[in-house]
Structure to design on (617 residues):
């Protein structure tokens, strides 16, 4: 097993988000206020000292504002020499008097500027950094960095090898919990480090030609259940996230959840060839002397000290290796291949349930399997399309940087719907004498395994605990295996009937996928979609027009849908040559489409179906 790797990142953010309103409470805005700058620098010094006291090195991401502060510059240089800290450059922390006077704007999210302004700001910030330190940085970052921005930085400043490039599930869920005022929409990316493609930051590169030239890391390491189900800003290894989520004992000021969360990231080595990673990235605004999240400063300070102490303890026990961002980028490229997926069999450590989600990410897809819904596929992002999605003021997506989904149970209902329609999900139904049971209603759990197939590539296999299905006159036990085959863009489902109360009986198995496309809760125009069915009777299409039409074919080779707005083709096939494939068009109240297969299954039989993602030309 490899050592657990941690990136500890600090930034001397002279004008921290939120902090001006607190420090200057009751006064007109002044981002040059001396009290604000002094307090911010004091917090940065405290963070650095806390890391070093615990034997940990950091990456110091200098902000634009800090490049005008002699003391911040001196601290960075001194800590680089003494502790080996990396001096890097972040595109967060742009707001300061100098920036606002030059660019005449209060915007501070680099990906939201026009491309012309992005280039100007990058050249400005990188140039000033070089003037001060005599070299260009090897690491940079922001909450999100769009592909055009990354490509420009890599071309102009080739020393950059690592970047904080997205914030996991920072989309509509976070937006709603910030009173609809936090316009950073970037759902759909990886939760752990990856090599972004030149076409889209979220989508990992499939080969050297697609490689943007950097290793990307997420902005914070999140709880992969709690963050998906709710507001991610409350559930991360950032200690102040845990306090904001009120996940601590208010009397003792203890927070076992923080350590459990770090340990679950350590546990991911089981699913990733011994590799496990975590990051801690805390800006000074979170340690404001007037307190935050109903917490006094003393608790904010204690949580930070305790978090650092835990990482330091792991390092002393030879279980952890602290790396700078640049060091980690080199390590990642030595450790991982382009096609090797990132896997996480994640368990609930917050609410005490037995819930498990399995997350899978590779250059073809990001997928989530929910064991509390019988192994249903509940989130699917078609990375195979490598969808070019420009972001910023001069593009069709000023704020929305999310990677579109085909399936997303939180924004498009999943199995549990309010009324007549269907939600997006990939599941199966068992039918017997007019009775129907959807496996999405069957809670289960999973075991993870791997199988080498060829050229060192592997299948990642989820074997689900068998579930019992009861009809009025028949009971059966069914087991599901979900198989991800590396470098194929396919997810296979195997259903095996282990036993039946009547060994001569048969039931109908209906394997289905209900899908659409989008990045928010709101429906998109589906009229450009084409549903198709191919097989012994030839090729037939349904051009989507909200008319509730459907078609089927016995022995169908495949059923599919092409979605031009996201340049994606999704298809299903079945290993049973006698199975009937079908396609269904939705309607205005339920603007989805359905692909599926039905076949009969008996005791001891296995039926296999696959789902495939491809780029549609």
């Amino acid at each position: 097993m490899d050592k657990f790797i941690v990136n500890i990142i600090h930034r001397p953010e002279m004008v921290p988000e939120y902090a001006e309103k607190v420090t200057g409470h009751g006064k007109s805005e002044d981002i040059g206020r001396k009290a604000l700058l002094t307090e911010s620098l004091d917090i940065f010094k405290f963070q650095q000292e806390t890391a070093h006291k615990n034997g940990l090195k950091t990456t110091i991401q200098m902000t634009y504002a800090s490049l005008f502060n002699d003391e911040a510059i001196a601290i960075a240089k001194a800590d680089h020499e003494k502790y080996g800290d990396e001096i890097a450059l972040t595109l967060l922390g742009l707001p300061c008097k100098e920036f606002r006077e030059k660019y005449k704007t209060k915007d501070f999210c680099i990906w939201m500027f026009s491309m012309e302004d992005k280039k100007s700001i990058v050249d400005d910030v990188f140039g000033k950094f070089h003037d001060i330190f005599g070299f260009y940085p090897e690491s940079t970052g922001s909450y999100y960095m769009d592909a055009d921005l990354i490509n420009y930085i890599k071309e102009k400043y080739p020393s950059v090898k690592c970047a904080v490039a997205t914030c996991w599930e920072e989309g509509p869920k976070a937006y709603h919990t910030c009173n609809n005022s936090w316009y950073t929409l970037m759902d759909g990316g990886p939760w752990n480090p990856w090599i972004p493609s030149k076409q889209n930051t979220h989508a990992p590169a499939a080969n050297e030609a697609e490689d943007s030239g950097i290793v990307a890391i997420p902005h914070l390491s999140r709880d992969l259940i709690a963050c998906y189900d709710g507001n991610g800003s409350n559930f991360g290894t950032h200690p102040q996230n845990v306090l904001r989520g009120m996940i601590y004992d208010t009397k003792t000021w203890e927070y076992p959840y923080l350590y459990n969360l770090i340990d679950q990231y350590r546990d991911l080595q089981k699913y990733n060839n011994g590799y496990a990673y975590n990051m801690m990235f805390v800006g000074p605004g979170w340690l404001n002397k007037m307190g935050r999240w109903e917490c006094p400063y003393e608790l904010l300070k204690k949580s930070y000290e305790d978090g650092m102490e835990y990482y330091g303890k792991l390092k002393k026990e030879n279980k952890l290796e602290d790396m700078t961002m640049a060091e980690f980028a080199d390590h990642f490229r030595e450790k991982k291949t382009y096609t090797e997926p990132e896997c996480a069999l994640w368990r609930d450590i917050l609410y005490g349930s037995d819930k498990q989600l399995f997350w899978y990410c590779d250059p073809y897809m990001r997928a989530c399997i929910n064991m509390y819904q019988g192994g249903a596929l509940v989130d699917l992002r078609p990375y195979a399309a490598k969808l070019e999605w420009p972001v910023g003021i001069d593009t069709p997506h000023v704020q929305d940087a999310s990677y579109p989904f085909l399936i997303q149970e939180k924004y498009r209902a999943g199995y549990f719907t309010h009324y007549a329609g269907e939600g997006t999900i990939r599941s199966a139904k068992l039918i017997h004498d007019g009775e129907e049971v959807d496996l999405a209603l069957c809670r289960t759990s999973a075991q993870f395994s791997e199988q080498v197939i060829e050229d060192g590539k592997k299948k990642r296999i989820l074997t689900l605990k068998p579930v019992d299905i009861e009809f009025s006159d028949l009971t059966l036990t069914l087991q599901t295996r979900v198989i991800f085959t590396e470098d194929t863009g396919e997810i296979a489902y195997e259903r095996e009937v282990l036993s039946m109360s009547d060994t001569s009986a048969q039931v109908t198995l209906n394997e289905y996928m209900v899908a659409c496309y989008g990045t928010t809760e709101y429906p998109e125009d589906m009229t450009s979609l084409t549903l198709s069915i191919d097989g012994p009777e030839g090729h037939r299409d349904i051009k989507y027009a909200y008319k509730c039409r459907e078609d089927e074919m016995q022995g169908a080779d495949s059923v599919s849908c092409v979605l031009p707005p996201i340049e994606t083709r999704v298809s299903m096939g079945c290993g049973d040559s006698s199975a009937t494939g079908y396609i269904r068009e939705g309607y205005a109240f339920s603007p989805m489409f359905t692909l599926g297969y039905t076949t009969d299954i008996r005791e001891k039989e296995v039926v296999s179906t696959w789902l495939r993602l491809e780029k549609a030309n």
